[in-house]
């Protein structure tokens, strides 16, 4: 099985599309099938770091992550689901993990350990020492590598109302008409 450590660079879903995941739209049976297929595709290993559920540090199972193309126009297009260990999955969702840590709902030591795990995977892949995600830095250090990723991830350059999800050719609009509406819902 070929590992795909670049998955750890997957951008966070933009705020306007929070709560609009394919698993919510398509339901439990679709989600269960995607989880099964993701594990089969990765030979029941984390697609980013290669650990099996028994080798994983925090959970003895693999989690499923939705992968998207993201365009500067605000289009977020669902591509596939992949199997990841808890550490790699949480590294991708570092914003959520950081917010929970700041609220004292997530152990700071675990947060820092997961950041170290992800940074080590990325450093080994790039062949040099880097820090990608932490409390200060959250930008890509080398745009040449970023441009060669197998998915399309553009920097956003649009208004809140431009964001939408494309799922199997169908367009879904944000649940939140504005940032203020998002804040009301999540705070």
Quickly count the domains: 1
Structural class: alpha+beta
Inertia-based shape: globular
Low-pLDDT windows of residues = 129-147
Number of helices: 7
What is the CA–CA distance across the termini? 42 Å
Helix and strand sequence: HHEEHHHHEEH
Averaged pLDDT: 86
Could you explain the architecture of this structure?
This protein is α+β, with helices and mostly antiparallel strands and 187 residues long. The protein has one domain (5-186). Helices cover 36% and strands 14% of the residues. It has helices at residues 22-26, 28-41, 86-92, 94-102, 108-126, 143-147, 179-186; strands at 63-70, 75-84, 164-167, 170-173. It has a 4-stranded mixed β-sheet with strand order 1-2-3-4. α3 packs across α5 (108-126). The longest helix has 19 residues, at 108-126. It starts with 21 loop residues before the first helix and ends with a helix.
